[in-house]
Write a structure and sequence with these properties.
Elements lengths: L2 H29 L4 E4 L5 E3 L1 H4 E4 L10 H10 L1 E2 L7 E13 L5 E7 L6 E8 L5 E5 L15 E7 L4 E13 L5 E5 H36 L2 H20 L2 H6 L9 H20 L2 H4 L1 H20 L5 H28 L5 H21 L10 H37 L11 H9 L4 E10 L1 H8 L1 H19 L3 E5 L4 E8 L5 H22 L4 E8 L6 H21 L1
Helix pairs in contact: 4-5, 4-12, 5-7, 5-12, 7-9, 7-10, 10-11, 11-12, 14-15, 15-16
The structure holds guanosine-5'-triphosphate.
Guanosine-5'-triphosphate binds next to strand 12, helix 14 and helix 15.
Catalytic activity: 2 GTP = 3',3'-c-di-GMP + 2 diphosphate
Organism: Motilimonas cestriensis
Enzyme class: transferase
Length: 562
Amino acid sequence: MAFLPCSILTAARITLYSLVLLFVICIPVTGFASPSATLVGNETVVIDDVELWRAIDLKNHAVPVSLTDLSQLFAHANALNASLTNQSGAYLARLTLTNSEDRASSRFFRINANFVDIGLGFWQSNQTTSLHQVDFSQHHDTNNPKLMHAQAFELTLNPNESGELWLYIKADHYAKPLTLKIISSQHFFQQMFMTNALTIFSIATMLALAIIALALYIKTRLTVTLACSGYIGLHGLGWAAASGLIDDLFNIQVINTTYLGMILFPFAIAAACQFTKLLFNMNYHRKSWAKLFNYVALACIFFGVVTPFVPFSISFAIAHIIAVLWVPLAILTGFKMMIFNDFRAKYYLIGNILYGASLIYYMLSHSPLLPAASQAELVVLVALAADCICILLSLATWLQHKKQDYSRAYSQARIDPLTHAGNRHALNEALAKLPKHYLVCFIDYDGVKTINDKQGHGKGDELLQFGTQLMNEAFRGEGDIFRTGGDEFICLFSLKSANQFTPTIQNIKQMITDCQVRLHEKWPTSGISYGIASSLESANQSQCLALADQRMYQQKRSKKTI
Ligand SMILES: Nc1nc2c(ncn2[C@@H]2O[C@H](COP(=O)(O)OP(=O)(O)OP(=O)(O)O)[C@@H](O)[C@H]2O)c(=O)[nH]1
């Protein structure tokens, strides 16, 4: 009986020690257990970044080149408890892969990272000893698919082949969860087409609109068009860089161009501030608003200059804080301007609401609220392209109204407000355009002073208006009439050849006689005195005008002496 409690105690001790030992052994085993994937048919496998990547000490390691390097790095790597979003540095992943098919299976491995300085894949098959290496680094991915907003490489597994895929990645910033998607060729090419087509279309739209705005600036020299070009163009260039398009097109080795998007963004917003200020004429109508936009623009330029010299994660944060502050400011401005009945606000507001909505989607896609939201960058990019179209439309509306204002001012400066005949300014322009052969007719109304004195100035005005109307009707299509003084008018007739002089002079005389008859019916005490001179009789226009004036006075004098 004494033995029993002792053996039970020992057994309990052994069991306890075994459990502790098992627990101690299991911790690292479960902690470092590699995820695995089995390739079946066309199925897409998604591996979450939290369970995939292990953090490597960034400073004390060399880029792995062999299986031994990989194993050693992996042994000292730290498991992650969180997503790689907003992290930076070097990470390693080990994944057990099995091709369950009896045929070779080709798969694309899509790593959800925009910015990648070093990206290496190593395939160690269980069936062979050689280590197959693939480089998907941004600078060396020449043999890999050119996929915007992410990195990808292809791997073909033999029938029923299995093994381990190692992934080594290093970057200054991971903007989103570093999910790994293993996709069949069929699905990958579809996705690649859509992603690249939409990205290139959106960026091309932005750059084309920026060129249009720049062309408008060259033609009009209006600063608002230059600010518009900067606003749209810098956004377009920024996205071309951030999406990887510039890297894929030009393969620039000096710098990793994907990082440039964040550096260009503050400058794009500085241009947007100036565009907004100029579009709504804030310098004249809303000076405090103009000041605010100037300060925001200056702050953006400051951050734009600073960003290349700070760690990229800070540049990334600065750019995103600017976006989060800018969009509500732009929407608020659009709303306010709509309240002030400003015609330019319509497109401006629509564009910024679209862009703002896409940014909310982008932020939700990086939060637990909307984890299923995908292709957030693409959504933002397409919305931004639509925003840029709206921005150019608001500029077009601005220019249209400016043109109308200009035409109004132009005609107001050339039209006599009482009679609506051309004024002296218009006469000078018309004289400059006269052909070789022309006729000048000087006209002066008779008895205006008497009408003014006896019936009042209003009646005198009516006489001048009625007389101009009569002559406009009579000369329509043949001559242009201008008011040069109180009751003095000049009519210019352009002729195609010298043999038109005689018939045209006859015609003018007949037309003025007809006008006189109708004028007399309404104003019996008034009349028209006129003198005609031709380019044939004079050496220049001044002589011709003086001759016509002289003849008009001769006629007026002869009337008075009768
Ligand atoms: N109602 C009116 N009168 C004007 C206007 N501009 C000038 N006048 C008058 O037109 C007259 C022009 O002077 P005159 O040509 O000497 O006057 P008139 O009575 O036509 O004399 P004759 O030409 O010699 O027949 C002056 O009395 C001006 O005050 C105007 O815009 N409206």
